[in-house]
């Protein structure tokens, strides 16, 4: 046995011990931790079997069973608890290769008598795919789905499709079948484009479950390789901040946000591998009308249309399309409209405690209440309608106008919730304990509401908290969720009854958003009917009735809007060489929705296009050959496109980075953190500066950080004047630019705290900002740092690119340099990693060698002290931490064994 001061054993020691069939017991410095029995370390074969999943979230939603208890581990988030192995430390990430062929599909399996069955031969789905859909509860199609898929040329990939169907009608299945056929039968790649990160994660998880048993033929190693090998289908989710070991060449199916899909297509066009793409699915096609993201979506579709020789199938769908035939004409697609809803929806509106059907027929009256809390008729209606539904055993979604209203309504609802049995209450307390073991600790509102079966859900919560609440609602433990309108489009949580406020902030919701919220009513397989109640005040009744009767707005192009979409479209067309001459530019513009929806486009668009081209030339993003008339992207233009920025952002970033290269301050991390603070977070009104907070933070900066602040244009004296009541008017270009710099610096102060191991909830409290916003900001900055590094690489600024990538990893892990290796372990992030380090667990070897009781103690020490549970919960809380400690131990063993094998192979 080694002495107490001996360092942990090396990889060779453990491997030698394994070969000898024995173990080693060693004490680590600063702790009495006994090294694990090395005979229990996972073997290489075990490691490979666990590495079959190619997604980075290896531990996402992992279940660790201990008797009857299950600990749910939420998906990864920036600075949070679960994360993938960072690229600098990861293995090659190769897919599991099998020599045995995939399971056969016997003819007897085919259900030829039922054309709606997924196993019917006309759909061409392998048995494993059908079984995968069956595991997700899908065995048959609705008649409308069968009719839609039977349109000529769809299943063969020869025709495009644009279709619309109500929420919950199963519109995704049509696109899923077409995408899976391209991946499995045609051996082409598929891209599914969705608007929100939450949908990327949900869709990726669903497709992995459907295709988990499917095997496809692996690529040969060369012309001499005649052996057939089989591998699993590579499904990857791409969004800001996400990291994957698999790139375009290795993946089969990608689920992407709009921006990531555009970058993926650009890269494939650049390296001439776009011919491997078989289908692109646009979910929520109505996003074309969004002024911020619509131009990128239109640009993406336009580029695919210009690649007509590659025969890429386009599938577009939405629940809120009014001009489906116009969009179908633009995309050279067949149009299909469906009004079928599997669960009938009963729609009502409520005013002054009276319930009306949409035809103004009075259907019920809500009793008045003598309680002080229910004197307001709107509050009384919400409470009464929610209580009645829960009493019958159903779930309810209450859409509120603000985050504060969500929390206040949750606290009010618990006073009227029916009592539950002891078993249900204990299961709810399990959810509370899960929430308490997050790094942000237990929210005091959720601590009071979840035991009663009520929760809130809005952007102020962290991703982990949202996932735990959604899971509890899905299991029937939480019966009511009070949420903001954005959840209607981002999370799939249907309910028997939805209660809707017609306002979002001070403004009324849009007709499309109202339809999305109403569409959440009715759960297939659990409800026979859905109910929606639009609760409004008497003063709003005229506007509300107009909202109810409003038709869905037609989707129009935003490419020529103020966001500079046309400039970006032209720049990307030139940079990807899809449009480099006058004729090809003309064909390129004709492929846009803008051209199809503009009256007399040849006349109307000509001056706009000329002005956009002139702007690109003046900003040195493109050049024009005066002799041939050909356009070519400059180095700045190529860097802008490669990193996914728009022209204005690319020019601004080039100016900022060029100035930084001339006067870069590396005495501290202040300057580099400022550089990877997102541009768009500072050019919008999303961040309001609290000048008093900023003054306090600036006053505490050391000399080096103050020098960096001066370099980027921040004047401490100006900050002090603003804190004393000054006003920064954004009335001139100079003042707009000044405000942009100060907002960006204000955000960088928050980020600097995160990379220096300040927990998310502490930073949020310091700046009086919701912890969910801080977490989202962290994720956005990781993505921005990565894309900025790409910009630098194209510009040839390799040193700055390395710096940005390094700090991107630090922000991802939420630690300083000395903890980056340790923070690879799930649950060991930020402050928790520092606690481990200071208690002798300084390396992955040390954690892998530790006794689980020591790990549990370390996790307990890292719990936020201000958010402790009540005394009677401490024993159960300790058991929860014990389960989490076992996950940490298993993960550390896995990572350490990986390193041992890699080192041995080298």
TrEMBL record:
Pfam families per UniProt: DEAD, DUF7898, Helicase_C, HTH_61, POLQ_helical
Signal peptide stretch: none
Domain of life, per lineage: Eukaryota
Chain segments carrying region Disordered: 39-62
Catalytic activity: ATP + H2O = ADP + phosphate + H(+)
CDD domains assigned: DEXHc_POLQ-like, SF2_C_Ski2
Domain Helicase C-terminal: 381-589
Boundaries of every Helicase ATP-binding domain copy: 152-339
SUPFAM superfamilies according to UniProt: P-loop containing nucleoside triphosphate hydrolases, Sec63 N-terminal domain-like, Winged helix' DNA-binding domain
Alphabetical keyword list: ATP-binding, Helicase, Hydrolase, Nucleotide-binding
Name by which UniProt lists this protein: P-loop containing nucleoside triphosphate hydrolase protein
Protein's organism: Discina gigas
């Amino acid at each position: 046995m080694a002495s107490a001061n001996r360092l942990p054993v090396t990889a060779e020691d453990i491997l030698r011990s394994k070969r000898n069939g024995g173990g080693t017991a060693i004490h680590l410095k600063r702790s009495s931790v006994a090294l694990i029995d090395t005979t229990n370390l996972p073997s290489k074969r075990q490691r490979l079997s666990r590495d079959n999943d190619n997604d980075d979230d290896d531990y996402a939603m992992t279940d660790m069973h201990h008797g009857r208890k299950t600990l749910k581990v939420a998906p990864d988030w920036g600075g949070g608890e679960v994360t993938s192995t960072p690229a600098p430390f990861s293995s090659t990430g190769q897919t599991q290769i099998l020599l045995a062929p995939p399971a056969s599909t016997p003819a007897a399996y085919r259900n030829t008598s039922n054309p709606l069955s997924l196993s019917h031969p006309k759909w061409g789905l392998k048995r494993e795919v059908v079984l995968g859909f069956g595991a997700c509860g899908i065995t048959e199609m609705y008649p409308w789905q069968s009719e839609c898929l039977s349109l000529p040329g769809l299943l063969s990939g020869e025709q495009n499709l644009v279709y619309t169907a109500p929420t919950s009608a199963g519109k995704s299945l049509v696109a899923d079948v077409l995408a899976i056929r391209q991946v499995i039968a045609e051996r082409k790649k598929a891209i599914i484009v969705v608007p929100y990160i939450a949908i990327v994660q949900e869709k990726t998880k669903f497709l992995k479950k459907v295709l988990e048993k499917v095997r496809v033929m692996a690529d040969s190693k060369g012309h001499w390789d005649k052996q057939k090998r089989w591998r699993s289908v590579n499904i990857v989710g791409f969004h800001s901040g996400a990291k994957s070991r698999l790139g375009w060449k290795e993946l089969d199916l990608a689920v992407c946000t709009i921006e990531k899909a555009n970058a993926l297509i650009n890269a494939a066009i650049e390296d001439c591998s776009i011919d491997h793409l078989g289908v692109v699915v646009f979910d929520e096609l109505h996003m074309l009308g969004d002024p911020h993201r619509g131009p990128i979506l239109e640009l993406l579709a336009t580029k695919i249309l210009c690649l007509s020789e590659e025969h890429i199938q386009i599938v577009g769908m939405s629940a809120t399309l009014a001009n489906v035939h116009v969009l179908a004409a633009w995309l050279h697609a067949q149009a299909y409209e469906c009004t079928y809803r599997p669960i009938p929806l009963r729609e009502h509106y409520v005013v002054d405690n009276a319930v009306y059907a949409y035809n103004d027929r009075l259907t019920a009256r809500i009793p008045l209440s003598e309680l002080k809390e229910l004197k307001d008729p709107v509050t009384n209606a919400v409470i009464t309608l929610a209580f009645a539904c829960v009493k019958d055993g159903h779930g309810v979604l209450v859409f509120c106008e603000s985050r504060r209203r969500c929390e206040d309504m949750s606290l009010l609802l618990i006073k009227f919730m029916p009592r539950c049995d002891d078993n249900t209450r204990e299961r709810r307390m399990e959810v509370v304990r899960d929430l308490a073991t997050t790094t942000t600790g237990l929210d005091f509102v959720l601590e009071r509401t979840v035991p009663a079966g009520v929760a809130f859900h809005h952007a102020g919560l962290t991703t982990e908290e949202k996932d735990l609440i959604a899971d509890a609602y899905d299991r029937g433990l939480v019966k009511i969720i009070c949420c903001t309108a954005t959840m209607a489009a981002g999370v799939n949580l249907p309910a028997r009854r939805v209660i809707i406020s017609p306002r979002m902030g001070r403004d009324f919701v849009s007709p499309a958003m109202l339809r999305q919220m109403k569409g959440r009513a009715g759960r297939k397989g659990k409800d026979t009917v859905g109910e929606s109640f639009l609760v409004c005040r008497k003063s709003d009744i005229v506007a509300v009735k107009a909202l109810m009767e409003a038709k869905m707005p037609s989707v129009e192009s935003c490419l020529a809007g103020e966001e500079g979409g046309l400039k970006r479209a032209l720049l990307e067309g030139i940079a990807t060489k899809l449009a480099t001459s006058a004729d090809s530019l003309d064909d390129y513009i004709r492929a846009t929705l803008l051209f199809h929806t503009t009256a007399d486009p040849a006349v109307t668009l000509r001056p706009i296009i000329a002005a956009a081209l002139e702007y690109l030339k003046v900003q040195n993003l493109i050049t024009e050959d005066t002799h041939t008339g050909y356009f070519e992207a400059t180095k700045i233009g190529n860097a802008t496109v490669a990193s996914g920025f728009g022209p204005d952002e690319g020019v601004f970033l080039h100016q900022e980075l060029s100035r930084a290269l001339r006067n870069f301050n590396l005495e501290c991390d202040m300057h580099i953190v400022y550089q990877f603070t997102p541009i768009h977070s500072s050019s919008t009104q999303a961040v309001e500066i609290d000048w008093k907070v900023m003054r306090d933070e600036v006053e505490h900066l050391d000399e080096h950080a103050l020098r960096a602040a001066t370099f980027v244009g921040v004047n401490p004296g100006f900050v002090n004047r603003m804190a004393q009541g000054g006003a920064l008017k954004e009335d001139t270009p100079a003042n707009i630019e000044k405000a942009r710099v100060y907002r960006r610096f204000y955000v960088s102060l928050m980020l600097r705290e995160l990379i220096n191991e300040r927990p998310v909830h502490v930073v949020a409290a310091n700046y009086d900002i919701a912890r969910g916003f801080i977490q989202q900001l962290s994720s956005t900055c990781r993505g921005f740092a990565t894309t900025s590094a790409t910009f630098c690489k194209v510009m040839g600024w390799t040193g700055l690119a390395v710096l940005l990538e390094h700090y991107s990893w630090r922000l991802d892990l939420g630690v300083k340099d000395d903890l980056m290796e340790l923070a690879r372990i799930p649950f060991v992030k930020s402050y928790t990693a520092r606690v481990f380090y200071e208690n002798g667990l300084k390396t992955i070897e040390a954690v892998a060698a530790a006794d689980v009781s020591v790990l549990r103690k370390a996790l307990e020490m890292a719990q936020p002290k201000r958010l402790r549970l009540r005394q009677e919960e401490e024993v159960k809380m300790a058991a929860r931490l014990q389960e989490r400690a076992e996950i940490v131990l298993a993960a550390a063993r896995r990572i350490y064994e990986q390193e041992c094998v890699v080192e041995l192979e080298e």
